[in-house]
Amino acid sequence: MTARLAGKIAVVTGAANGIGQACAALFRAEGAVVVPIDLAGTETACDLLNEAAVTAQFAAIGGQHGRIDVLVNAAAFAVFEWIESLSYEDWRRTLQGELDIVFLPTRAAWPWLKAGGKASVVNFASANARHALEGSPALAHCAGKGGVLAMTRQLAMEGAPHGIRANTIAPGFVRTAATARHLDADPAFEARVLRKSMLKTLGEPDDIAWCAVWLASDEARYVTGADFAVDGGATAW
Ligand SMILES: NC(=O)c1ccc[n+]([C@@H]2O[C@H](COP(=O)([O-])OP(=O)(O)OC[C@H]3O[C@@H](n4cnc5c(N)ncnc54)[C@H](O)[C@@H]3O)[C@@H](O)[C@H]2O)c1
Fold first, then answer.
1. Ligand 1 pocket check for 53: Cβ under 6 Å
2. Residue 175: which of 22, 24, 18 has the closest Cα?
3. Residue 193 Cα, ligand 1 centroid: separation in angstroms?
4. Could you identify the atom of ligand 1 that is nearest to the CA of residue 205?
5. Domain residue ranges of the chain, discontinuous segments joined by +
6. Ligand 1 centroid, distance to 188 Cα (angstroms)
7. CATH: 3.20.20.80, 3.30.450.40, 3.40.50.720, 3.90.76.10. Which one for 9-230?
8. pTM score, whole prediction
9. What are the tens digits of pLDDT across the range 16-67?
């Protein structure tokens, strides 16, 4: 059987941890040439909130490979606080860590995504883009993820004439180093998450990465401007 991403040049941000790390590993296993980016812990280190660094990084990647076929924007940063204790500074940092961190790499990658004539951008919304989860102080995160959902539809429209597809995956609660902090901080939290879920188990990074593999592949050539809930049924009831 042919690898599903054979020969594709795939840039994966947030590749040092969690879902991004799983995407990078599965993409490699499916034959892609993967350029993993993170603050540290990957071959390519870049602060994706530093405009000049992002511009330079993508110019280097595009210059080396001549095109980018897949951009997976998995890097993100969010502060979780209830409204009364959420500082304006943390609100702004979260919107940067959810929105600017998608905008800057996507804009820098755009000429290289156009260059191949057939490309896929995979962004991450969240169940939180549509639902509030009881017990989760996710105000700024919800605002950011709603923004990612909306901006990805616009990217799909702007990208279509150039052969660029853009979609979001909306994960439910996925066990990663970052989410382990929430689970550890409140022992009742996992039970609350599972009460909302049809499948009585938390997600694993690979559960999400398989959806990204499909969206990045030619199997999804007719799919753009769409959002995929991979959440154990949490947002379906
Ligand atoms: N894990 C979940 O339950 C869950 C649920 C819904 C949505 N999501 C979304 O899925 C995506 C991946 O989530 P995750 O849980 O794997 O995240 P994570 O926190 O485990 O990893 C995010 C990575 O982004 C990197 N990063 C943060 N700021 C950066 C910057 N300025 N420059 C470069 N790299 C930076 C971090 O170093 C980290 O390695 C995110 O968009 C997240 O919001 C996750």
1. no
2. 18
3. 19
4. 16
5. 9-230
6. 23
7. 3.40.50.720
8. 0.97
9. 999 999 999 999 999 999 999 999 998 899 999 999 999 999 999 999 999 9
